[in-house]
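Session log. Operator J.P. requested a structure for one protein chain; no other inputs attached. Running the standard single-chain path with C-alpha cell output.
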Amino acid sequence: MSEIKSTRIAFVEALTELMEKDERVYMVSADSVAVFRAQGLMKKYPDRIIEAGIAEGSAVMIAAGLASAGLKPFVCAYAGFLTMRACEQMRTFVGYPGLDVKFFGANAGMCSGEREGVTHQFFEDLGIMRAIPGYTVLAPADADDTGNMVRRAYETKGPVYCRIGSGRDPVVGTDEILRAYGEDVLILGCGAPLYDACLAADSLKDKDMGATVVNCNVIKPLNCEKLIPMIEKAKKVIVVEDHNIYGGLGSAICEIAARPVIRLGLKDIYPESGTANELKHKYEIDAPAIIAAAMR
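Structure written below.
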C-alpha cells in the first residue's frame, strides 16, 4: 500500500505500446511533453508527436483535424487547462461530431497541485466533462489502472476524457473491488483517495464495521448494473473523490441512487435548432411533459 508509481509514466508506456502497433496513433501536446515524461517517445516518433505549445484550444483543433482524417490522436495537457481553456473546442469540434479523440489531463484534483497552488489544482474537470454529451469519462486509481485506461480509451469509439494525477501516485491495485469486508459501509471512489479508502476500510474492520471499497474508474457511463445492487444492499454509502462535491462521481452516484426522481432535460444529447417552444416540446421539458411525468 505504500508503493508510489507515476500515472504519467504509465500513460507514456501504454501509449508507446499503442504507437508501436498502430501507426494511426498520434500524441498532441499542449506544452506537456515534459509534464508527461514523453521526451523519449518524442525522439522515437518525432513525426507523430505534435507540440502545439501553450495553446490548448489549438491542440484540440489539431487533434480534431487528425481524427477527421482517420487518425487516433491522444491530447495531453494539464487537466484544468484542457477542460476550461479548451472546453469550447472539446465540446463543439470534437464532442458534437463525435470524433475519435482521447484527452488525458494531468494534475487532476487538488492533491496534484500542492506545489503550484489553486491555478494548478483542477477539481472541476469531471463535472465539466460529464456535462458534455457523448464523452466517456475515466478516472483511474493508480499507475497500473492508468495503463488499462489508455488501452480502454483507444478501444472506445468516440471522444474520451481521462484525468490522471501528479506522477507521485500511491498504488492501490486494478481490481474493481479493492476491499470486501462487508455491507455496513459501501465506499465508492476514484483516483488517489482510493488509497485512503482502503486504509479506512482496514481500520473499520478492526472496529467490527465491514466496509467494501469500489474503484469507480469509469465515471461516465457508470456501471449501473453492478453499482445499484451494491448501493441497495449497503447500510450506508460514502463517495470519496479529489473533486468538487458538485458534478463529479458523488453527483453521478446520487443520480442513479435517486431513481424515484424523474429528471426532465436533455438526456446527454446535442439538441437541434428551433424555436424555444418547439425545442421544449421535442425534448420533453414543456408543461405536457411535466404533467405526464407527474401522472407516471
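Operator note: The mean pLDDT is 96.
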